Structure formats: C-alpha cells, structure tokens
Amino acid sequence: MQKAYLKLKDGTIFSGILHGKANVCGEVVFNTSMTGYPEILTDPSYNGQIVVMTYPLIGNYGVDIYEKESSSIKATALIVKKLYRGPLPEGKTSLEEYMSKGDKPILEGIDTRALTLHLRDNGSQNGVIYLEGMEAEADKILSTFPKITERDLISEVAVDKVTQSPELSEGFVAPPTNPTLKAAVVDYGIKYSIIDDLYQRNCAVTLFPPTFKAEDVLDKGYDLLFLSNGPGDPALLTQSVEEIKKCLKKIPIRGICLGHQLLTLALGGKTVKMDFGHHGGNQPVKDMITGKTFVTSQNHGFMSDEKTLPSEVLVWMRNANDNSVEGIISKENNVKSVQFHPEASPGPHDKNDIFDEFLKEL
C-alpha cells in the first residue's frame, strides 16, 4: 500500500492509498450500485474505464467464481472509499486478492462522494492514478491519453471469429441441445448473463465478431440478429452500422445497450455522449406503451438522440429521471431494442421479461 492520487483531466486531484500498479489511465465513471462489484468489474462494457463505487464500503461479501460476466476483469481500475478486509464465507476470494490476481489496481480512501459530485457536475473524463512524487510523469500520460470517443475498446473484448454455442463459466446454463430458435449474435463485448438468458429460453447462440457481414447471417437459418452490449462510442462502428442496415427488413433485429445505440444509427438517427452517463442498478424506466415504471440496471455513457429518430421509430421506453430514450421499436423494420440491461447482473430483474418480448414474435 502506497500513498497515491487520482488526477482528472480538468486538473482536480484526490488522494488515497494504492493497492497494485500505478500510472493507469482511463475514463473515470461512477457506479451507484451497493452490491454487484464482481459483475461490474468483469462487464466488458467497462473496458477502458476507472470505476468509482459511490457506496462507502465495498468487498464485504468477497468474490465468487459464479459472479462474473466475462473471463477476466475488464475495468481498468477500481476506486473505493473503504475496502472490506473482514472474514468471508468459505470459498470466497477477497476483492483485494481478486484484483491483485487480475493485475488491476484499487485506489482506496478517496472521498468517493465528493468525486462523484465532481463528475456529476463536470462530466465523466479521463483520469490517471499515480504514486506520490510521480505527478510529472502522470501528467504526460494524461495529456496524451485518447478520449473514449477515440478509442477502439471493442476489439479487446469481442470474439475475433465465429463461435458456435459458446460455453459459459461455472454457474451458468449449458447451450441448449434441441433449440427452438437460433440467434446470430454480434459480439461487441457481450455479458455472460445475456447469453445465459437466451440459452434459458432454448435459443441457440452463434457469436459473430463486430466485423460481421450481412451475408454471414441472412438466409442462413437464423431466426434473429441480436446486437450485444459493449464499450465505447457507437459512432466509431461505421462498418458494423452499414452491415446492420443491410439486414433491416430481412431478419428480426434485437439489441441491448450498445446494440440499441447501433440500431439507432442504422435506422437513421444519431447518438450523443452523455455528461456522466447512467451507471448503476437503480435507474427507473417507464414503458410508454403500458405506462408502467420499473427499476433497471444500466451502464452507458452514450444515448440515442431522440430528435434525430425517424418518424416511424416509436420511443418505447424512457428514463424516468431525465426522460432520455431507453427503448425503441420500428415495426416497419422488425426492430426492438433497449438501452438498459434486462439481464441485470448485477441489479434488479424487473424487466427480465424483455427477453421474452424480444423472442415471442419470431
């Protein structure tokens, strides 16, 4: 443990104690979840980001092998107010040990509430974690580090070749042996739980890399094209958007999170970067068709720009806090997508039935 600092792009500095390596840089975002840190850290959508947990005590139930959304930690670093070091149930690994084995640092002791308020008021931004006396070197790293809108984060977390019936880690269901549906899933950094939810509904999954071609999935026996979650700016995925456009009206298309944003672009709309995004398990969303409101898990820094959506696109869901678009439907193109995470992991399962909604008309 060493004295260390977090310096934000705007020059603001916070002090703490470092566990692990220094001179790491990434976009600093805050997450309002009280629990679920193992899933958060292994969620590929957090690739390239330094995650600040707003809840003051993190790690009190350790880490279990079942509580992960990919094969490894994807977040760049973790910032907490206090790291739990007490007893744990048998078979659990401490969060500190888990992060150390993954070669990812924890910065402890920062006033995370103050940091969160700063990010809320000034926006998510790049930051660097450095040791005492190393500020000059840290400044060099921070000054040249690209913005998240300039980084290819997806190639680091997505498959690079077609993968049939991907096996998940222990604790998830196995691929169905006699599937009733077949999904071509474009992997931009998909979470295990999304695949698991498809498997639970007897839907076979074939993963395609982000560089997929429309001809790879059309007229190949697939019942739907599914666009996954993932990190970074959807506007960078111009090739993928063009291939999605070729699939419109030819196959049912469903999307979650980044997949929702890519469908926004493919339908002719635009996406914009949010000031600090939605990250946490307590985001209220209203279904504009039924009028019902529910609580969702979310993790995104970009959103659909509603004023650019074509007239035939229906705003299906809205965030009850800021009225932003949380889901769209295009009947003309057989498209449905949501910005939030119906699989949760972590978070509430209020809208896990979205998967049933996605599949029921196929």
Strand content: 25-35%
The largest sheet, given as strand count, sense and whether it forms a barrel, is:
10 strands, mixed
Mean pLDDT across the residues is 97
Count the strands? 19
Shape: globular
| Contiguous helical run count | 9
Number of domains: 2
Tell me what you see in this structure:
There is one protein chain. The protein is of the alpha/beta class. Helices cover 20% and strands 31% of the residues. It has two domains: 144 residues, Carbamoyl-phosphate synthase small subunit, N-terminal domain (Glucose Oxidase, domain 1), CATH 3.50.30.20; 206 residues, Rossmann fold (3-Layer(aba) Sandwich). The protein contains nine helices and 19 strands. The strands form three sheets. Strands 10-12-11-13-14-19-18-17-15-16 form a ten-stranded mixed sheet, sandwiched between helices. Strand 11, helix 5 and strand 12 form a beta-alpha-beta unit. The model has no long low-confidence stretch (mean pLDDT 97).
Q: Can you summarize this structure?
A:
Helices cover 20% and strands 31% of the residues. With 362 residues, the chain is an alpha/beta fold. The strands form three sheets. The chain has a ten-stranded mixed β-sheet, with helices on both faces. Strands 1-2-8-6-4-3-9 form a seven-stranded mixed barrel. Strands 5-7 form a two-stranded parallel ribbon.
